[in-house]
Design a protein that fits this description.
alpha+beta; 60s Ribosomal Protein L30, Chain: A; four-stranded mixed β-sheet; globular
Amino acid sequence: MTRQIEFHNPPSLPKAVGFSHAAETRGGRTLFLAGQVAKDREGRVVGKGDLVAQFRQVCENLKAAVTAGGGQLTDVVKLTIYVLDAGDYKRHAKAIGGVYREYFGKHFPAMTLVGVRDLYDAAEGCVIEIEGFACLP
């Protein structure tokens, strides 16, 4: 069986802008992506105090994880984004969207944004963490 990914946006739900309401997969392999923060390969936080810079580094880390599994970012079917300040995320949505499109193009998996009180690496300056999964060939 070949791998298939189909995104669903039923007309009975609000219009999905920048995400899909549901993702259906058939065939292929599932790659679970652990929460990625804005740390480089040496473990240094990139972009302390800069949500957009941190989002870029997180995308870079997600790309590395998916690529290591033999896939690409367009294989991602679900992302959960955890941020310390949802208001800050919304204020920077346009810039974050630009970075997102650099990595994912017009590929919009099912996504959830969650404002949280703390992140494991927050004391080191991380303000965002993203986890998800991909359906690989």
